[in-house]
Sequence to fold (249 residues):
Amino acid sequence: MAVVERIVYYPGCFANYYDPEIGKALIEVMRINGIEVIVPDWVCCGMPMLANGNLKGAAKNVKFNLESLSKAASPGYKIITTCPSGNLMLRKECLTFFDSDEARFVSENTYDAGEFLFKLHQRGRLSTNLGRIPLKVFYHSPCHLKVQNIIREPLTLLRLIPGVEISRVNTRCCGMGGSYGMKTTNYKRSVEIAKPSWEDIESLHRENKVDNIVTECGGCKLQLEAGTGIKSMHPIMLLDQAYRAYKPS
Fold:
């Protein structure tokens, strides 16, 4: 398919350092839908710094990202994220703590990847040449998407994939809470919050009702995998697999 538009991708730390397959999948999914991906210079979104009281460090990172992203997106391109926390930072927190012309521009033009693809689908622009993926999934809705009311969009995309069965939609907090759950002092409380989700996943898995966990959040992925031993993947990776599995009749 010929390129008909472009998007600016902000990968964030998780896709860049921990799970680069997310970024690769995004680029491939966009390519199939005729969209070129631009990745400008970027740094950590600053949310971990902000959450831990390092306002000066967060401000430095935010300033860099806002200038870089607003310049790259200035021709009229949308800014796409695959990390819920990065999305929330660019879309909401930057305006609250670091309001500027660039912050308002970035906020107005930033979309979660699933949200953006859902809008393509609504316009009849999303390719539905998707192969069958026989998979029962436990979908975990990350808190940083829930607070932005981005819930039905990823579910709609997953339901487009032949063979994918959503066994459960989990809206509980996983207990990781960004860097909160990574601190020794918060471990016990983090586990208490996570336990109902862990038990739900394990129960469904024993009943052969769940093969994989699906969630957009890297922190949620680590938390849910650690407590259950069951693999988790980003929805964009499952969509990429389905495009690759498509065989024209």
Observations:
- The domain at 5-120 is CATH 3.40.50 (Rossmann fold).
- Strands lie at 5-10, 35-38, 78-81, 110-112, 135-140, 164-170, 212-214, 232-233.
- The chain has two domains: 5-120, 135-245.
